[in-house]
Amino acid sequence: MHGREQVLIAREVEAIQIPEGTRIRLPEGMEVMITQELGGSFTIMTTRGLMYRIDQNDADALGKEVVKVEIDDNVAEDKEAIEQRVWEQMRRCYDPEIPVNIVDLGLIYDCEVDEQPEGGHRVEVKMTLTAPGCGMGPVLAEDVKNRVQEVPGVDNVHVEVVFDPPWNPNMMTEAARLQLGFM
To answer: Is residue 144 within 8 Å of residue 92, measured between CB atoms?
Structure first.
């Protein structure tokens, strides 16, 4: 979404306050501004200047259509194909304050895909945050986990938030740095 859009909340909806990560219910009829619509979730700002994240499954509360991204539901045969799909899914995850996906932001430090003896694959992800005290850490980690679990053939996902090494803007891709004005 480009630009901002003023809307009234059509029904009571659960939201996550940014950057604290606190869950709250916003009332029907509340006036909000949609400031970001990326990866299916929405970042909104209230008239009091408070920011919240609304999940993609609650798009209708903002007068938007719930959009499900179609994933090729054929189970990939090899580890490399699974890994490619996992990275695609992680690129659909966004920090609610920054209009760049978390992969291009440099927040994903490691992603290991392992075949399990009983079949299927286990995915281990190590990620960080742009700031260690950010309350959105558990929300972003859960978003990564949920997206990766959508990949056919992935049976088990573990996401760990780490802070070593500390994140810095040099970890972003060149495209992300350009988009955010760091170049």
So the answer is: no
Nearest to 115 by CA among 143, 75, 144: 75
Model pLDDT for residues 64-107, shown as the tens digit of each residue: 987 766 666 666 668 899 999 999 999 999 999 899 999 999 99
Q: Report the Cα 28 to chain-centroid distance in Å.
A: 25
For the record, the structure tokens of 48 come out as 């009091």
DSSP 53-114: EE-GGGGGGGT----PPP---SPPSSHHHHHHHHHHHHTT-B-TTSSSBTTTTT-EEEEEEE
For the chain, the structural domain boundaries read 5-62, 79-179
Multiple choice CATH, 79-179, 3.40.309.10, 3.10.180.10, 3.30.300.130, 3.20.20.140:
3.30.300.130
Tell me the per-residue pLDDT of 153-163, one tens digit each, with 9 for 90 and over.
999 999 999 99
Terminal CA-CA length for the chain? 23
CATH of domain 5-62: 2.30.30.40
Question: What is the value of pTM for the model shown?
Answer: 0.86
